[in-house]
């Protein structure tokens, strides 16, 4: 392959094509070695352990990234803009319609052979007007659903992931709980509903002084000051439980245990050295650490209700020995106030700082700095946002995307992270952070980055700080 310095666009196309071919061969080899057929786009999704195989994940990421870059390269700019971005609004609107109408569930309960649109309409709770085949065809053209014969649709791999965990009967009987059970329908429903409404305010929010427009596009769109209070309002029960599900599903897949147990040399700390899980919720990371490093003492802090109700229930029922022998202490604490645990050996926060705009995140960390001793370490477990280009100040190899892919791997990785980042801005005026932004956050609060430990795939990691 010609060198990365080549500026011949056709060479770039050839390189993208060749990355795709090589990666398909790699996929073929892995599936063959497990005597497993590669799943078809035309059939419903059956989650399979091979999807999490590292080689499969790597080859799939290269293919997706290269294919998307090819699409952008070979079409006219107008075609690219209209297909991906112009149509984007309608993709979201159409997805909202099919999720709210439980169309994927209707097709699933119909047996999967394909269903005429009239029949689909009959089985939906509020039968739509004649327009629904146009929405389904719009989505089928984008590989969500399949039009088998004219006006007859079936689930494909993508649309089947929109099925809810409840039966159609349960969905129709108790709509407020239809999203319970953690499926992609929650994320799609949430983003396409209150997320999309808020996104229409994003541009004006960015251009207006944030003090007048509220802390986020969401608050501007919904005319409230506090996202959480809005979710508590009467009538928003379904949205609240759906959003809780979305947050939980985001929390579940991004890391492996080794990232937490390997972030620092926990074993080298003396007996009863103190580790504080700040904003720890149930204390899931604390549990991982306490099992592996029982010589340390742990404190899980969160808001009073979370500690008194959820965390106590979790530990008392499932792991009472840790609380009984005093290894784990559950402590109500508001992290915007001085920390009651002074001179801890380690304070760590998982998925906290990305919920807050920089001045507020810095205020949380400043309280920890005030409580710390000179040897205290602070660890932030969070996504580490890559640039779409090479980072000239990078101290490690980054994500290792092959030329000519974007340095953040484009759509499959950078796409997901920038989506998460935009959504944090949209909902909370908050953000994911680059390596440089983690350093700035430290500088604002009296901490200096000592080390960055990346988890599997490189996009999620631990930023380890010591006192500045
Ligand atoms: C995204 S969750 C992360 C929970 C936990 N660190 C984890 O990774 O499982 C954010 C947590 O911050 C807590 N939180 C929000 N505001 C807080 C505050 N002012 N003081 C302490 N905890 C707070 C929430 O209750 C919630 O448990």
TrEMBL record:
It comes from the Eukaryota. Pfam families: Dimerisation, Methyltransf_2. Keywords: Methyltransferase, S-adenosyl-L-methionine, Transferase. Residues 273-446 form the O-methyltransferase C-terminal domain. Residues 88-163 form the O-methyltransferase dimerisation domain. InterPro entries: COMT-like (IPR016461), COMT_C (IPR001077), COMT_dimerisation (IPR012967), SAM-dependent_MTases_sf (IPR029063), WH-like_DNA-bd_sf (IPR036388), WH_DNA-bd_sf (IPR036390). GO terms for molecular function: O-methyltransferase activity. One of its GO terms (biological process) is methylation. Gene3D superfamilies: Vaccinia Virus protein VP39, Winged helix-like DNA-binding domain superfamily/Winged helix DNA-binding domain. CDD domains: AdoMet_MTases. This is S-adenosyl-L-methionine-dependent methyltransferase.
């Amino acid at each position: 392959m010609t060198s990365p310095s080549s500026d011949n666009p056709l060479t770039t196309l050839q390189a993208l094509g060749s990355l795709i071919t090589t990666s398909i061969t790699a996929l073929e080899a892995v599936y063959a070695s497990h005597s497993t057929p590669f799943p078809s786009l035309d059939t419903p999704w059956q989650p399979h352990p091979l999807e999490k195989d590292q080689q499969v994940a790597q080859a799939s990421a290269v293919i997706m990234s290269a294919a998307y870059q090819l699409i952008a390269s070979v079409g006219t700019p107008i075609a690219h803009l209209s297909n991906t971005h112009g149509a984007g609004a309608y993709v979201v609107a159409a997805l909202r319609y099919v999720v709210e109408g439980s169309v994927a569930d209707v097709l699933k309960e119909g047996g999967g052979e394909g269903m005429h649109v009239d029949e689909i309409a009959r089985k939906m709770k509020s039968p739509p007007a004649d327009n629904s085949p146009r929405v389904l065809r719009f989505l089928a053209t984008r590989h969500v659903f399949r039009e088998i014969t004219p006006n007859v649709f079936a689930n494909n791999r993508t649309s089947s992931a929109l099925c809810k965990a409840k039966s159609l009967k349960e969905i129709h009987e108790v709509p407020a709980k239809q999203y319970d059970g953690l499926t992609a329908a929650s994320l799609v429903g949430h983003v396409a509903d209150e997320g999309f409404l808020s996104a229409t305010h994003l541009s004006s929010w960015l251009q207006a002084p944030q003090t007048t427009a509220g802390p986020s596009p969401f608050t501007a769109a919904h005319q409230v000051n506090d996202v959480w209070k809005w979710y508590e309002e009467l009538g928003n029960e379904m949205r609240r439980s759906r959003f809780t599900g979305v947050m939980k599903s985001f929390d579940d897949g991004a890391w492996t245990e080794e990232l937490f147990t390997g972030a620092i040399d926990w074993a080298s700390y003396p007996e009863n050295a103190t580790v504080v899980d700040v904003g720890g919720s149930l204390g899931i990371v604390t549990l991982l650490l306490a099992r592996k490093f029982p010589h340390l003492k742990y404190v899980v802090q969160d808001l009073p209700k979370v500690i008194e109700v959820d965390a106590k229930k979790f530990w008392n029922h499932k792991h009472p020995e840790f609380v009984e022998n005093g290894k784990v202490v559950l402590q109500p604490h508001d992290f915007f106030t001085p920390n009651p645990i002074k001179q801890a050996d380690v304070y760590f926060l998982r998925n906290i700082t990305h919920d807050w705009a920089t001045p507020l995140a810095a205020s949380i960390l400043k309280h920890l700095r005030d409580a710390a001793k000179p040897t205290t370490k602070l660890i932030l477990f969070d996504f580490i946002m890559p640039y779409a280009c090479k980072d000239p100040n990078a101290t490690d190899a980054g994500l290792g995307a092959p030329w000519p892919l974007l340095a953040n791997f484009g759509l499959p990785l950078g796409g997901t992270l920038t989506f998460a980042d935009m959504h944090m801005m949209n909902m909370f005026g908050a953000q994911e952070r680059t390596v440089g932004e983690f350093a700035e956050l430290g500088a604002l609060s009296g901490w200096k980055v000592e080390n960055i430990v990346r988890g599997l795939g490189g996009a999620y990691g631990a930023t380890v700080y010591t006192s500045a």
